[in-house]
Amino acid sequence: MSIFTKTQQEIAESIESDAVIKDWKDWRWQFRNSITNIEDFEDILNISFSEEEKAELKKTLEHFPMAITPYYASLIDISNFKDDPVFKQSFCSSNELNIQKYEMGDPLSEDSDSPVENITHRYPDRVLFHVSNMCAMYCRHCTRKRKVGDQDHIPDKDTLQKGIQYIKDNPQVRDVLLSGGDPFMLSDSTIKWLLEEVSAIKHVEVIRIGTRMPVVLPYRITDELAEILGSFDKLWVNTHFNHPRELTDSSREAVKKLVKQGIPMGNQTVLLAGVNDCPYLMKTLMQKLVKNRIRPYYIYQCDLSEGLSHFRTPVSKGVEIIESLRGHTSGFAVPTYVIDAPGGGGKIPVNPNYVISYSTNKVILRNYEGVICSYKEPDSYEPVFCDRDCDECTLELKTEGTEYLPPVGIEKLMADNEEETSLIPSDNERVSRRS
Ligand SMILES: *Cc1c(COP(=O)(O)O)cnc(C)c1O
Ligand code: SF4
What we know:
Elements: H1 6-15, H2 21-24, H3 27-32, H4 38-45, H5 51-63, H6 70-73, H7 85-90, E1 119-120, E2 126-130, H8 157-169, E3 175-179, H9 188-199, E4 206-210, H10 213-216, H11 223-230, E5 235-239, H12 249-260, E6 265-270, H13 279-291, E7 295-300, H14 315-325, E8 336-341, E9 346-349, E10 355-358, E11 362-366, E12 372-376, H15 409-414, H16 429-433
This protein binds pyridoxal-5'-phosphate and iron/sulfur cluster.
Iron/sulfur cluster (SF4) is lined by residues 135, 138-139, 142, 144, 148, 180-182, 212.
């Protein structure tokens, strides 16, 4: 009875008068009965919108689909639904049609950095592989709204094959992120096939699955699926909890199944105005995640995707949140706060400033309490010129399989064996005048 709450009972019965606990916990039943239109939402949750509101909401639905599992809907506090974090994340809003000049369809240029359909290859050693474009619940804040839920973008097995071939052909790819959409929208057998294919590629050392299933449809994590996933040694799972209220008995049970299989779990949170833009709430969320053996990985600043301005906070809110975590709670409960660079530069960490000043042999730092201290640097440190000839180096990096990748960016400016002394934008006028 503790899993099947009163609200769940009521919702289940308003969907099907003879629905029983077994149905509620059957992910197929949940999926079949997902709430995709406003009238159903009103009926099932016993809420009503004015005709005017409804007309606006319907306009939104013409652009971005809605799907709310009965399970996720049952987490909404009906007495105050307009402020409810679950409602705000899942129920369409006319604000989504309010598009700002600086917003973009594809702010992270995922489609431009795409060598083959469904692969985004941004970083040297890892790729993002879009294996599904469906989700059990369409997050209103989704950065990939342009694609997700769109029937024209569903990858078939042929397209997936092309992605797998790309990974095979590119030995520098040692880390593959399966994302989408939600990879767990695929059938167990397709997931198994995909994982077999990718993990059989010798140079792939890590496979990560990004999924929101433990949050929005935890019953999808069946014993069978957990067992399939548990059989792949290279696998990590990253999920997407945004609010402590989402960590219910059911979601904890789903997470536990994966953890019991020995799968390391991480979490990515999106910082959202009116949902989780509160240091105290975030600390509670991070501690609850850790308690369930999920390592908080990233907090994302909300991307510049179209129609998300009502969800965005200033960057300072994210810094304030990290300020309230670092030192105040377990180090592994502190995620990295990042801005995913518009234009495709990748994730850029943003931190509070802890270094106050430097002298030639001291660094002046401050801690989370505001205590200021000096760290004395060594009086003698002989920098060793590094020519990247590791065979001759006293540090004896003689591990097999460590491939030398030439340095890029700031790393290149720092390298002893590189000539470059500056990074210059390609359209620099001053440099273009040089003959
Ligand atoms: C986030 C992301 C990755 C993974 O980045 P990590 O910092 O390693 O988690 C890889 N590719 C793309 C395109 C991404 O957006
Ligand atoms: S689960 Fe992920 S991909 Fe799906 S709608 Fe939410 S944020 Fe977008």
